[in-house]
Amino acid sequence: MSLDAFQLNAKSALVTGSHKGLGAAIAIALAQAGANVGCHGRDPKPGNACDEISALGRKTFYFAGDVADAKVCSGLMERTVAEFGSIDILVNNAGIIRRAPAAEFSADYWNEVIAVNLTAVFRLSQLAGLQMLKQGKPGKIVNIASLLAFQGGILVPAYAAAKGGVAQLTKALSNEWAAKRINVNAIAPGYMATDNTAALRADPVRNRQILERIPAGRWGDPEDLAGAAVFLCSPASDYVHGHVLVVDGGWLAR
Hints:
By secondary structure, the protein is α/β, with parallel strands linked by helices. The chain has one domain (3-247): Rossmann fold (3-Layer(aba) Sandwich), CATH 3.40.50.720. The protein has helices at residues 21-32, 48-55, 70-84, 107-135, 157-177, 198-202, 204-213, 226-233, and strands at 12-15, 36-41, 60-64, 89-92, 139-144, 182-189, 244-247. Helix 1 (21-32) runs parallel beside helix 2 (48-55), helix 1 (21-32) packs across helix 8 and helix 4 (107-135) packs parallel to helix 5.
C-alpha cells in the first residue's frame, strides 16, 4: 500500500468539539494530511486549531454552539457544505462529563450528558450520512467513544451509558452504510490529559491508581489520537467498518 492511501488532499472535514483538547489535535492532524477542516466549540471565540490549520494552507472556519441543540447540528452541516462544497469526513468528538454518585445523579445531569454525547452524535451522523449519500462518493464518519464503552466507570453513569451507546450506534450505522462506501467507525481513547480528566489527575490517589494500571506508564496526550484519526478518515481504512479502535496505552489489555 502506498503512503498516498493515508492522504486526505482536498477532502472536506468537520470535527466537533475541536476548540481545544482531543478535537483540536484531531482537526490539526487531518489538516496536516491534506484536508480542509471546519472546527466547532461552545466557546464563542475560536481556539488555536483554526490558526494552525490556516498556517498549513488549508481552508477552515469556526462555528460556535451547543450540539445539544438540533439547530446547531443542522447549522454545522450547512456551514461545512457552504464553505467547502461537500462533507467527506465527520468526526463526532464533542462531549461532556458529569460526576456524581448514581443514587444522587440528577435528571438534569443525565439529560445533558445523553443529549451531547449520544443524541447529537446520531443527529450529526444522520445529517452527514444524508449529505454523503447525495454526493454519491465515499465518506468517513468517526465517533469518539471511550474505554467506558467497555467498562462501567465510577460516578459517571450517564457518560458510560452514552459512550456504550456510541459504540453500538457506530455498528448500527456501519451496517446500513458500508455498502454505500460510507465508513462508520469509532475511536475509544483511554485516560487522556484533557480538561475532562483534570479532577482525576489532581487526585493523588486516583492518579496513582490509574497510572499503575496503564502499561505505557503515562496519561495519553491528545496527539496520541492523531494517527488513529487519520487512518480511519483516509482511504487506508476503506475496508474497516463498525470498528471501535482503542487507543489506551494498553489499559484494556492489563
